[in-house]
Write a structure and sequence with these properties.
Elements (H helix, E strand, L loop, with lengths): L1 H28 L2 H8 L3 H4 L1 H23 L2 H20 L4 H29 L5 H13 L1 H15 L4 H4 L2 H14 L13 H19 L4 H23 L13 H31 L4 H29 L2 H24 L2 H28 L6 H33 L3 H33 L4
Helix pairs in contact: 1-6, 1-7, 1-8, 1-10, 4-6, 4-11, 4-17, 5-6, 5-10, 6-7, 6-17, 7-14, 8-14, 11-12, 11-17, 13-14, 13-16, 13-17, 13-18, 14-16, 15-16, 15-18, 17-18
Length: 454
């Protein structure tokens, strides 16, 4: 029992760190129209508040895979926590947009260590029979953040200032640090591991080049960065297959069950991050409500999705992966269709209903896809499998946010009024996200006919 309590406390400690990062991410989304006005920037620029953060995490997660082999997990957790606190402090006093981005950089650094650390603890210390439940609890700590993030950000921004979003998270990080000092074990490590610097650099160049291009795809400079990024991506694949100790081993992609679960998981992640940008922006610009109302609208659905995570994990432990995953993706697709109709009708009541429906679906499918994917690979590949999941999770989130922000920026420039342009951009963005969810559903349905995920 004592071991179980320590495991739960360790998951909560690392989960609170990740929770804080996701909370700020979704809380800041409702402030974007205010930041655009305050700093005199456009939607493509302001989305770097999210993209910078996710980009740093996408780079840090594979690096953390190496750090977990080189250093004990407790000091890694402490470093991650302290860097996050530094980022909070910088954003609390940020007088300009550049300082705000620097703070987001340090927060991404901390979360980039804390997030894989949480799943590392679950996969290495939780018994297989309870892994679904523990993954659900771990996901709960991060997925509940979107439930309160928009309201939290909207309330503070409307009544005080967006700077207060960072102030009130400092005590959460202190609590996380105290729990972690008590509960996180000092695990033995392989000190002979060496860092593949070339692999890390090529991954960073690939991620950056892709996001720069997606942010402004018509600029000649960004087209050049895309070419450089693609070359770096090819070299990264080469390093993964030829290096003695690559940051990311790609052998996990040979496992079809793992790959199917991963791609479907990424489709939901794109919906999470793309939707968290689209919906508050549409509510404020097209419907004319303030940031607080935009946040409140997101609460019911996000709460449902968060609270379903441990329930869905327990269901997977009992009946397997097929029913919660297929059912969840079907409900998600239905919810996005209704959301598109709600935006066409400009009905905030129908929008809330649609968000709740697709959140029910994601609640059943999201964490279970990761659990099923990890269960499909050998124990020796857990580190690589988890790293790929967490790296691409952050990268696809950054891509989704960048793409929908770019779509809305383009449509705003094309139409005569900001409201009309935002409405059409919202519909196009949601249409793209719906295609991803339907593709994920069909791929899982087809796969389960061949060989079931565990």
């Amino acid at each position: 029992m004592n071991k179980q309590l320590h495991l739960l406390a360790a998951v909560i400690a690392t989960g609170l760190l990740s929770f804080s990062g996701v909370l700020i991410e979704t809380a800041m989304n409702v402030t974007f129209p205010i930041l655009i006005d305050q700093f005199h920037i456009n939607p493509s620029t302001v989305q770097w508040v999210t993209t910078m953060y996710l980009l740093v995490i996408a780079i840090m997660v594979p690096l953390t895979n190496f750090l977990l082999k080189k250093f004990a997990i407790k000091p890694l957790f402490i470093i991650a926590n302290l860097f996050f606190i530094l980022g909070l402090t910088l954003d609390l006093i940020a007088p300009n947009f550049t300082t705000l981005l620097v703070g987001r950089f340090f927060q991404g650094f901390g979360t980039g260590i804390g997030l894989p650390l949480m799943f590392h603890i679950i996969l290495n210390f939780a018994p297989l029979a309870k892994r679904g439940l523990m993954m659900g609890i771990g996901t709960l700590t991060t997925s509940i953040a979107p439930a309160i993030g928009p309201t939290y950000g909207g309330l503070l921004t409307t009544n005080y200032s967006w700077h207060y979003i960072f102030l009130f998270l400092l005590p959460v990080l202190v609590v996380s640090l105290i729990i972690g000092l008590y509960a996180i074990p000092l695990q033995k490590v392989n000190t002979a591991s060496t860092l593949d610097v070339a692999h890390l650099a090529s991954l960073a160049i690939f991620f950056t080049g892709m996001l720069m291009f997606l942010n402004e795809p018509t600029q000649l400079l960004n087209i050049g960065l895309l070419m450089i990024g693609l070359l770096a991506g090819g070299y990264s694949i080469y390093r993964a297959n030829s290096s003695a100790e690559p940051l990311l081993r790609l052998n996990v992609f040979k496992n079809r069950a793992y790959t199917t679960a991963l791609l479907s998981f990424l489709a939901i992640q794109a919906l999470f991050l793309g939707g968290s940008f689209i919906i508050p922006t549409f509510i404020q610009i097209s419907l004319g409500y303030n940031a607080f109302i935009a946040g409140v609208v997101m609460v019911p659905g996000a709460l449902v999705s968060a609270l379903l995570a441990p329930v869905a994990g327990r269901l997977l432990d009992q009946v397997g992966a097929k029913k919660p995953i297929i059912g969840g993706l079907t409900i998600t697709a239905l919810g996005v269709v209704i959301l598109i109709l709600a935006c066409i009708e400009q009905s905030i009541g129908l929008l809330i209903c649609a968000h709740v429906i697709y959140s029910i679906g994601t609640g059943f499918a999201y964490s279970n896809l990761m659990t099923a994917g990890m269960n499909a690979i050998p124990t020796a590949e857990y580190g690589d499998g988890s790293t790929v999941f967490n790296t691409l999770q952050q990268f696809i989130g950054a891509v989704a946010t960048t793409v929908v922000a770019t779509i809305i920026t383009i449509t705003q420039a094309y139409y005569a009024t900001l409201s009309t342009g935002t409405s059409y951009g919202t519909l196009i963005g949601l249409g793209c996200l719906l295609i991803l969810i339907v593709a994920a559903l069909l791929s899982c349905v087809f796969f389960f006919k061949k060989a079931p995920l565990k």
